[in-house]
Design a protein that fits this description.
It is built from nine helices and four strands, in the order ααααβαβαβααβα. It is α+β, with helices and mostly antiparallel strands.
Length: 212
């Protein structure tokens, strides 16, 4: 009986010590408010669910160039995205000109890829929707291999699709239009996904159930 009592007491003390250490660590993090680049760059997902749940739009890139193999793999991820009747209506334009990069994403520190689609929808499937599927695949794939990524929509209407001459400047033919611009590169040392992040709404605010 004494042995059992001593064992129970020992276990309780170990659990109490672990709890105190956890509280101290949490308090330390809350007090400092520090979010380092380690927090961001070490979040690379090992599984599909980790990649999706940890993905974030990075705005600060290091300027380190992507390899040709990385760019090809990222675009291949876009090509493999679902599309209506497997029509694969996309064009992927890699922008290497620094002046054009800055006009789209306000930096030259990342690789810029435009996803363009035909101006006319076919088979009743929205071309913009299909462009979104391709862009999302590229965005998540890039983060799954430890790269930083962001998607930009505003430059499409405001800068690229202004007229045929403007589209031609970005390598897009008259019968296509830019749908999404991606910036993909390496995280800057000061990249921070948390200090100014907006919290996600809770599950119930999005979901409704239609019952029989």
């Amino acid at each position: 009986m004494k042995t059992r009592t001593r064992l129970t007491t020992a276990i309780a003390l170990v659990l109490l010590a672990a709890l105190m250490m956890s509280v101290c660590a949490f308090a330390s993090g809350e007090a400092s408010g520090e979010t380092t680049s380690e927090t961001v760059t070490k979040v690379k997902g090992e599984t599909a669910d980790e990649v999706i749940l940890n993905a974030f739009a990075c705005k600060d890139f290091s300027g380190e160039a992507l390899t040709d193999e990385e760019i090809e793999a990222i675009i291949q991820a876009g090509i493999n995205a679902p599309s209506a009747m497997n029509s694969q209506p996309w064009q992927f334009i890699i922008i290497e000109n620094n002046e054009l990069k800055e006009s789209l994403v306000s930096t030259t520190d990342c690789t810029v890829i435009i996803v363009a689609v035909p101006t006319e929808d076919s088979m009743g499937a929205s071309m913009q929707f299909q462009a979104g599927l391709a862009a999302e695949s590229m965005y998540l794939y890039a983060q799954s291999i430890g790269l930083a990524a962001n998607m930009y929509v505003a430059p499409c209407a405001m800068t690229i699709n202004v007229d045929d001459d403007s589209k031609a400047l970005y390598g897009i033919s008259a019968d296509y239009e830019a749908a999404i611009v991606l910036g993909i590169g390496h995280y800057a040392d000061e990249a921070d996904a948390y200090s100014s992040a907006t919290a996600r709404n809770d599950y119930d605010s999005f979901v409704s159930v239609v019952e029989l």
